[in-house]
Amino acid sequence: MSGTFIGYLIGYIIAIVGVGYGLHAAGVGQSWITAIVLVLIGLGIVYALSRSQRDKSTSLPRDVTTRTTTRETRDPAERV
Length: 80
Hints:
The protein is an all-alpha fold.
């Protein structure tokens, strides 16, 4: 698993635990808390996977970042 996915997953787990605790403290029934937490876990996994895939697709290959164009390599005196 990538570090990005793990980072998002840890953040969502912390948020879900907080929501679950808040619902419990507010006196919401256990079955409602379970249902809400399961939905939030599913949404968190889908979001983390989509973000980690998007981050991979936007990174440039190594050879593209090291190339220079002919315009950058020309001597300024040679420009017309």
